Amino acid sequence: MRILGIEGTAWAASAAVFETDDPDALRSETGRAPDPAADHVFIESDPYQPDSGGIHPRESAEHMGNAIPEVVETALAHAAARHDGDGPVVDGVAFSRGPGLGPCLRIVGTAARSVAQTLDVPLLGVNHMVAHLEIGRYQSGFDSPVCLNASGANAHLLGYHNGRYRVLGETMDTGVGNALDKFTRHVGWTHPGGPKVEKAAEDGDYVELPYVVKGMDFSFSGIMSAAKDEADAGTPVPDICAGLQETVFAMLAEVAERALSLTGTDELVLGGGVGQNARLREMLAEMCDQRGAEFYAPDPRFLRDNAGMIAALGARMLAAGDTLAVEESTVDPNFRPDQVAVTWRGADESVARAHTDDGAIRGAEATVDIGSEEVVKRRVPKTYRHPELDERIRRERTKAEARLTSDARRAGVRTPVVRDVDPVDGVIAFQRVGDADLAERLGPEAVRVVGESLARLHEAGIVHGDPTTRNVRVGTGPDGDPRVYLIDFGLGFHTGHVEDHAMDLHVFAQSVEGTADDAAPLIDALEAGYETIGSEEVIARLREVESRGRYR
Ligand SMILES: C[C@@H](O)[C@H](NC(=O)OP(=O)(O)OC[C@H]1O[C@@H](n2cnc3c(N)ncnc32)[C@H](O)[C@@H]1O)C(=O)O
Ligand SMILES: Nc1ncnc2c1ncn2[C@@H]1O[C@H](COP(=O)(O)OP(=O)(O)OP(=O)(O)O)[C@@H](O)[C@H]1O
Ligand SMILES: [Fe+2]
């Protein structure tokens, strides 16, 4: 099979030919990227480089208009040279259908339709974000990894479950690359800023910046304003760059680890242009190493925007018969990865694995020793994090967890009794509660109580910060009545903001959607439980959070 791929969502005008009958041809046996000459992918790219400022959609579309026909011609010439003369030179035309800049996408779509019609071969409409993560999966040979997409306009954690890529967590505002690019624009550097931040950080000393994660979601706006303020106040820019890298990438490593912990998976792949950053890769590799998981990052030509990943996924889609009729092939600037019906993977495959309780558990943040009456939770140092940041996070979270676990109980929510706290070493001893994590006993009744408990917390001005199906314990009371306990308040805080309350519900819903067989009735139960005590305003805000298009 030989597939032409076309990419042009924002800056890279790119065309590629992917050629093989062996779906595993991209696989790297050594854990390193295969020899480019032997990996069956030919890529021709022409990047758009703005003279000043960031990417201008109109200029970028102009670039696509000029460059796409040329790169496509080069790729088709490559295909023709390898063609034995029978039938069309390629078997299908795959193109980036979205997400991306509308004017650019329309040029890509038009080019793809015209080549497909001229050659009379099928059209394959590829989701650019899914392509970013699938390429790493093909190369790694992992079955069902957690995927961290760290690209310009996006940042999210995805896992395949129930026929779709579920968004386990994502940025609440800008993409990670765009955040770095905005900072470098502020200090007068040309686009793209990411590589310049990496270079400058080599000579910088870490400065402290805000660190914001909410379960597996995260936000960059606070850290970016703080970084700009530091620059305006005269802090050396290389120091800010070092602070940015240490903070932003530690956040990504932390949420990736939380996704591994939630799903029980021990495989992580990286995708997206920011994945070219050596410090990010180093942190992720170290995080995985520390928890005994495997990590794979494709080589740079497959991380940044490129048509090779589009063609490689297009080949799988064609093999699955997932073609697109020309009259239905409009592009979609807001195409989310979880909108894609994944036809090329087995319906039973899943990122979620069964857990075993073997006395010592490794959560995302801590190791937990389970005794018969008592559990001891230790926030062990994370070597991937800068030592100052690591120390600050462990101390603050240990204190918050001990305090909020008790505050929550006073608000009428079941939580374990705190028996001992050592914030310096990051150790808490708790009463052992429940018989299993909610993840193992997922049902509407328990989830309804979670909704009720979160509402009770919120009424008391507390947010949990990380309510997932692994941070709820279920058991039975003396009369056989079901008991539901909330644990792991380390990301919690006191707040009356509706937005923070809605985020708690959103985080829990994402954890259910990423792992449950039938999520809908569980989400209904969550909201029904919440509504018995909580405010309607929070549910309304939840709808708003869910509908936010996050491609900025
Ligand atoms: C929708 C699509 O158009 C978009 N693509 C995109 O953003 O291009 P990508 O090639 O995946 O990523 C580009 C970003 O990657 C950053 N970048 C490149 N090299 C970097 C490095 N060494 N360190 C940090 N960031 C880097 C750039 O600054 C830029 O923000 C996306 O995937 O979100
Ligand atoms: N008080 C408790 N009683 C019974 N089991 C507990 C208790 N506290 C923790 N556990 C068990 O240990 C696991 C990890 O605990 P916890 O969630 O607090 O750690 P963590 O490292 O913060 O995890 P993560 O960040 O991945 O949610 C829980 O999922 C649960 O199975
Ligand atoms: Fe991209």
TrEMBL record:
Required cofactor names: Fe(2+)
Protein name: Probable bifunctional tRNA threonylcarbamoyladenosine biosynthesis protein
Residues where L-threonylcarbamoyladenylate binds: N149, A150, S151, G152, A153, D181, G194, E198, N277
Main location: cytoplasm
Biased composition (Basic and acidic residues): 24-43
InterPro entries, A to Z: ATPase_NBD, Bud32, Gcp-like_dom, KAE1/TsaD, Kae1_archaea_euk, Kinase-like_dom_sf, Peptidase_M22_CS, Prot_kinase_dom
Subunit structure: Component of the KEOPS complex that consists of Kae1, Bud32, Cgi121 and Pcc1; the whole complex dimerizes.
Catalytic center residues: D466
Organism expressing this protein natively: Haloferax sulfurifontis ATCC BAA-897
Binding site for Fe cation: H128, H132, D305
